[in-house]
Amino acid sequence: MAGKELAALLGRETIKGEVMTDEALSKHTSLRIGGPVAAMVFPEDPVSLKNLLSAAAEDDIPVFVIGAGTNLLVTDERIDGIAVSLEAFDRLSVTEEAEDDVTVFAGAGLQLWRLVNFAKEKGYSGIEALAGIPGSLGGAVFMNAGSFGVEIKDVLVSITVMNRYGKIAPLAAGNLRFSYRRSNLPEGMVILGASIRLKKSDPSEVEAKVNECLRKKRLTQPLGEASAGCVFKNPEGENAGRLIDLAGCKGMRAGGAEVSGMHANYFINKGNATCKDFIELMDRVREKVKEKSGITLEPEIKIIGKNLN
Ligand SMILES: Cc1cc2nc3c(=O)[nH]c(=O)nc-3n(C[C@H](O)[C@H](O)[C@H](O)COP(=O)(O)OP(=O)(O)OC[C@H]3O[C@@H](n4cnc5c(N)ncnc54)[C@H](O)[C@@H]3O)c2cc1C
């Protein structure tokens, strides 16, 4: 991609919002890993996002959406493209109220904990188990985030998406074929927001459930350290953390990346880990688990490579 093309695109007055050039993505991921991206853009509104996406499509400039970066492993090499953050898309409102339930619309950039807190304060039940999952609502929908047997798909009514030419459309949750940590969102779609349905309940009961989920997470997960959550998906009927532990990998290290001693499916950046270290550790753990249990682990984290694949 020519620098001139990118500068012309970013200079357009029709794209409102902050622009950072050669921004280190390590500053935007919970793992604190990631090299520079040619540009990171924070569109202020849907029109600016539309203008950005359509101009990038016209000029063949690769674009990817970054949520809160809590499930990402980003390459150390420079990414010749645009990272888009929807931080400004953080609306939260009740759009429909029935006797027993409410429908809430939340923007993709809203932090999931804000939605969980809102539901807790109002006494709306359904997403208590998602308490403690970091990240944005857009990321949670894209990843079909879940915990304690509840996934975001369970409460989702529909999402609003924008395609790479800026066209906005609603998509019913039923058409998305959600599966374990997957939304099957069509390629190039950006989630703008989601409608979710929650049951009216007793605020103290909702609060008790939220607190219980948070308590369990604090006991079992290294929440204070730099990680991207679970590295591998749980194989059908198995638990990836248990398999990694059984294979003797707790504490295993590659450069600055280490398998957590607290939860074996969490790999920690001990301070100076690179993407290369992290991938080496993933490969070694996968090999050990295969040797010990015959099971091949699949990554849960999203790997963002130089070529954005
Ligand atoms: C300490 C810790 C604990 C965690 N615990 C859990 C857990 O219990 N359960 C769980 O499921 N996950 C867990 N995770 C993983 C992670 O928090 C979730 O997957 C989260 O939903 C990711 O959201 P994000 O905004 O950070 O997405 P990102 O990591 O920024 O992005 C993830 C993917 O979503 C895409 N994406 C993000 N926003 C949009 C959008 N608006 N439109 C289109 N695509 C988009 C990105 O392109 C990327 O492919 C944990 C992570 C950490 C660090």
Could you provide a short overview of the structure?
With 309 residues, this protein is of the alpha+beta class. The chain contains 7 helices and 17 strands.
> Tally of extended strands?
17
Beta-strand content estimate: 25-35%
N-to-C CA distance: 16 Å
Tell me about the largest β-sheet: 6 strands, antiparallel
Instruction: Indicate the overall shape.
Output: globular
Mean pLDDT score: 95
Q: How much is the radius of gyration in Å?
A: 20 Å
Secondary-structure element string = HEEHEEEEEHEHEEEEEHHEEEHE
At the first level of CATH, the class of the largest domain is Alpha Beta
In the CATH hierarchy, the third-tier topology of the largest domain is known as: Uridine Diphospho-n-acetylenolpyruvylglucosamine Reductase, domain 3
Structural class of the secondary elements?
alpha+beta
Please mark out the parts with pLDDT under 50 across 5 or more consecutive residues, or reply none: none
Instruction: Specify the helix fraction band.
Output: 25-40%
Counting H and I runs of at least 4 residues, what is the number of helices? 7
Molecules bound to protein: flavin-adenine dinucleotide
